């Protein structure tokens, strides 16, 4: 167990309450924005981006051109800007929509829910994670969609993510859902590994995000749709 998490007295996973709103929104923002750096590094390591970067750098060296050097710098800044916007834009949108009214969007019906993980850490009770599930209907099939899985950086690799996801699966089985689906980004490799450990399988990849196509292309982000069939 992580040393940072060693002072936790007791972990409680409970339903979201209105008093949690500010802390939950802040944790959500931090949890999403931390993917900017990995996204930028992944984008720059792609073959097309790497070729463009090296070409501009070599041209700048051979021509001793400040203009070419400036273009190379602008290129790198553009990739970083897109890597940032893909996640910062997502945060801005969700804080204005479903995360603005969590009760209304996640707790207004008995077959959907929003949970927080709460524990005493370093002498005070803190919210350390969150996750939600929303009931969906496709013809006669009823299934759940997992949303807003965020774990505080203070307690990564402690099994909390596994417990939060299992909370969703247990709830979904009680509701009689046929499966649980989710979407995550290709940058979130730890989350993908966690879902695979729980039996989720990749069913689709796409690049349809809330932002312009060119931002998605420059950031090299793919959306991974995964699902886990549930036994009835």
Task: Summarize the amount of helix as a percent range.
Answer: 40-55%
Order of helices and strands: EHHHHHEEEHEHEHE
For the biggest β-sheet, the strand order reads 1-2-3-4-5-7-6
Structural class, by secondary structure, is alpha+beta
- Please outline the major beta sheet: 7 strands, mixed
Rough outline: elongated
Strand-residue fraction?
25-35%
Q: Which stretches are low in confidence, meaning pLDDT under 50 for 5 or more residues running?
A: 1-8
Radius of gyration: 20 Å
Number of strands: 7
Average pLDDT confidence is: 90
Distance between the termini: 34 Å
The number of helices is: 8
Task: Tell me what the structure shows.
The protein has 232 residues and is α+β, with helices and mostly antiparallel strands. Helix content is 46%, strand content 26%. It has helices spanning 21-33, 36-44, 47-63, 66-96, 102-106, 160-174, 189-197, 213-219, and strands spanning 11-15, 113-121, 124-138, 141-151, 179-185, 201-206, 223-229. It has a 7-stranded mixed beta sheet with strand order 1-2-3-4-5-7-6, sandwiched between helices. Strand 4, helix 6 and strand 5 (179-185) form a beta-alpha-beta unit. Helix 2 (36-44) runs antiparallel to helix 4 (66-96), helix 3 runs antiparallel to helix 4 (66-96) and helix 4 (66-96) packs across helix 8. Mean pLDDT is 90; it is low at 1-8.
């Amino acid at each position: 167990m992580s040393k940072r998490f060693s002072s936790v007295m007791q972990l409680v996973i409970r339903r979201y309450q209105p008093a949690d709103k500010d802390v939950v929104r802040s944790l959500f923002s931090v949890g999403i924005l931390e993917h900017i750096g990995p996204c930028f590094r992944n984008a720059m390591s792609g073959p097309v981006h790497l070729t463009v970067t090296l070409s501009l750098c070599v041209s700048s060296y051979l021509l001793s051109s400040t203009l070419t050097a400036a273009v190379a710098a602008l290129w790198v800044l553009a990739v970083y800007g897109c890597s940032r916007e893909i996640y910062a834009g997502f945060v801005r949108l969700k804080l204005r929509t479903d995360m603005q009214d969590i009760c209304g969007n996640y707790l207004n019906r008995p077959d959907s829910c929003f949970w927080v993980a709460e524990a005493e850490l370093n002498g005070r009770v803190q919210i350390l994670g969150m996750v939600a599930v929303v009931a969906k209907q496709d013809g006669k099939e009823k299934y759940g969609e997992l949303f807003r899985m965020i774990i505080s950086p203070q307690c990564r690799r402690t099994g909390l993510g596994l417990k939060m996801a299992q909370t969703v699966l247990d709830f979904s089985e009680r509701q009689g859902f046929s499966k649980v689906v989710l979407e995550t980004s290709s940058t979130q490799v730890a989350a993908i590994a966690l879902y695979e450990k729980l039996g989720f399988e990749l069913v689709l990849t796409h690049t349809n995000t809330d932002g312009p196509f060119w931002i998605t292309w420059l950031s090299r982000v793919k959306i991974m749709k995964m699902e886990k069939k549930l036994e009835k």
